[in-house]
TrEMBL record:
Pfam families: SocA_Panacea. It comes from the Bacteria. This is Antitoxin SocA-like Panacea domain-containing protein. Residues 184-277 form the Antitoxin SocA-like Panacea domain.
Length: 336
């Protein structure tokens, strides 16, 4: 099918040919070279305006610009808002922009390199965002400021907590890729408990909770629920900053050896047979069948201390190899 369009040089409708060309344009003060098309009049040989080709060229220009300068996407801008619990207007104002700037970007306006870099830095560096928010809090209303401030505190607390938990998960996954989300939760619990037995301190700041399937670390559960088991683990494995101290690594290795041989379902029953989980469920829930997170069911660290102090004494645990005696007995009890 022959194509035709109005040629302003011939001043009439003309058939045209389409050629692939390489063009260079200036976008947001940056020079961009990109693949383009041009329609050429069959009669006069001049370029003809064709709306579909113009849209194609503009799309390729924007695509190449985003790729060349690593421009933040609209999805990533939305993630900034969600991460810091802040609306488009308030975010624009604390960054020193017009109140409608973020909304324009979300509606498709092309963002400049410097603004894109700033948004990306804000997203990746919570401490940096915290400074910006604090320095520019007078530009937004107190409600928006306090809401975002609370989000920052939560993120910073979680980052500190998750880093050590993630380091243990990374080691678990390196040693064995077959661990399930359920078994990882229970192995983390035993790492926490036996780290206390041998050091007198807990490895994780975060408290676990007594859910119906045993002890759970809620921040990890929420991440798996939101992003999926494979995605979270992939991100953890790619994080080169996650490290364990030598003794921490030895603790985790012992837990893998003496508990990693059991399935998640067996580990669940083993943890549910222990006093910290039983006492917490009894005291907090009074025997009701509840949904995850419906009540505050934190297993107090003092309960873990008391119980595993008694286990240390009963089984005469003085070395990491002694963990095996207790793990075997726990398995035998639930197998009877």
């Amino acid at each position: 099918m022959k194509k035709s369009a109005f040629c302003e040089y011939c001043f009439s409708e003309r058939e045209y040919q389409v050629y692939k060309v390489r063009r260079t344009s200036i976008l947001k003060e940056e020079e961009v070279s990109y693949k383009a098309k041009e329609a050429v009049c069959n009669v006069c040989g001049n370029e003809i305006f064709v709306s579909d080709i113009c849209e194609y060229n503009l799309m390729n220009l924007y695509k190449e610009y985003r790729r060349n300068y690593n421009i933040i996407s609209t999805d990533e801008i939305e993630k900034v808002k969600i991460k810091y619990s802040i609306n488009s207007e308030a975010l624009s104002l604390i960054l020193g922009w017009n109140s409608k700037t973020i909304e324009r970007y979300l509606d498709g306006d092309m963002i400049g390199v410097s603004n894109s870099d700033l948004l990306r830095k804000v997203y990746e560096n919570t401490s940096y965002y915290s400074i910006i928010l604090q320095n520019n809090k007078e530009r937004i209303n107190p409600v928006d400021y306090n809401k975002s401030r609370q989000a920052i505190r939560y993120i910073l607390d979680q980052d500190e907590t998750e880093e050590k938990i993630d380091a243990v998960i990374k080691y678990l996954l390196i040693r064995c890729e077959d661990f399930t989300a359920l078994s990882i939760q229970k192995l983390l619990y035993y790492v926490q408990a036996f780290h206390y037995v041998f050091t007198g301190n807990f490895m994780f700041e975060e408290d676990c909770e007594a859910w119906k399937d045993g002890p759970f670390y809620p921040s990890l559960y929420e991440r798996y629920e939101q992003f999926g088991y494979e995605k979270v683990n992939k991100d953890i494995m790619a994080n080169d900053k996650l490290r364990l101290e030598n003794f921490e690594r030895n603790i985790v290795e012992s837990i893998i050896k003496f508990y990693g041989c059991y399935s998640g379902k067996i580990l669940k029953e083993m943890t549910k047979s222990e006093a910290p989980w039983i006492l917490t469920r009894t005291n907090s829930i009074n025997g009701k069948n509840i949904k995850y997170g419906e009540f505050n069911t934190v297993i107090e660290k003092s309960l873990i201390q008391e119980y595993f102090d008694s286990i240390k004494e009963k089984y005469n645990i003085s070395s990491l190899l002694d963990i095996q005696n207790y793990s075997r007995d726990s398995f035998d009890k639930i197998s009877i």
